[in-house]
Model the fold of this input.
Amino acid sequence: MIEIPSNFIVSAELENVVLSFLSEWQSANKVIRVKTSGSTGAPKEIVLSKNGVIASAQNTIQVFNLSTDTRALLCLPLTTIGGKMMLVRALQCSMQLHIQYPSSNPLKSFNFPIDFIAVTPMQLKVMLDESELELKKIATILVGGAPISAELETQLQEKRITVYHSYGMTETASHVALRRIGFESEDFYKALPGIHFSVDEIQALAISFSALKSELIQTTDQVELLSETTFRWLGRTDFVINSGGVKIHPEEIERLLAPQIPHSFFISSIPDPTLGERVVLFIEVEENRSLDFDIDFPRYGQPKEVICLPEFSYTPSGKIDRRLTRKCYLELKK
Done:
C-alpha cells in the first residue's frame, strides 16, 4: 500500500494527487510521463527516465544544499514538471515539504518558516507586492516557467531580494541552468553539474545532459554562448519576426517595454504586403488606446500598431498563448 512519507505535509485536497504520483514513482516502470506546458504548441506527453529525473533532483539538492533540515513549500501544480520535481527532491533528500494548492500568493495563508520555494514569475510578483516581509525571510527562491520582466527584476533589485531564475523545460526534467537576478544579479545562465551547452548554425541552444538522455536536446532558444557551461538568452527562434528581411526578437522589445506597460502584453506580427510581417504590440485591455513610449527601440523593432484585446488565450499552465491569440485576432479580421 502506498503511503505519504512523513516529511510530506499535504493539504487534504491534494492527498489523492500526491498518492497517484507516488504510485507511479514507486512502480516497476523505469519511466514517468509528463505533459508539456503548451507554451510553444499543443501540450504533448514527454517520457522521462526515472534515473534522469533523480539526476536532475540531485543537481538541485547539491546546488542549493537541500537536506533534512530544509523546510520547503510546494505551491506549483502537481501536473507540471516543476511540481513533480519538488516531490522527487523531497524524496531524495528527505527535506520537509509542505504541499499546498497553487495560488497567486502562496504566502498569504502560510505561517510556517520556509527555507526553499519554487514559484512562477506571476506568483513571485504577487508575493512581492502583498507579502514582501515574508518573502524576504526565505533563504532560497527559485523562479521559472516563463521569462522574467524587466519591471520585476528592477523591483527585486530595489527591495534587495535575490532569486534564482531557472532555465529548463519538461524535456530536461526541470532546470539545467540558473541565473541570479535582483539584488545580486547576473546576465548569464550557468549550467548545473554534468550539463554542457552548444549551439547550431542559427545559434539555437543544444543541451547535453547524459544522465537524462544520450542524445543532444535541441531547443528553439537563441543564445549567445559564452562557454560550454554559460550563455546569455536572446529569445526564441520560433518567435523571431522577419520584417522586410530584418530579423527581430520579440523578447528583446518586450524587456524594453515592460516597465511602461501595466498590463499583460506581447510583441508579435501581422501580415504586411510590403514587409512580409509588420511588428505589432498586443495588449490585454478592454478598450482601445494609443500609447507613446520613451524607449530607444532596436532598429526596425518599434511596433507599427497597438492591438488591444479584452482577453488573451492562455495555456493550461497560465502562460500567454501567443500563437493562438494572434491566430484568433487574424481570423476575426478576415
Q: What stands out?
A: The first helix runs from residue 15 to 25. The mean pLDDT is 89.
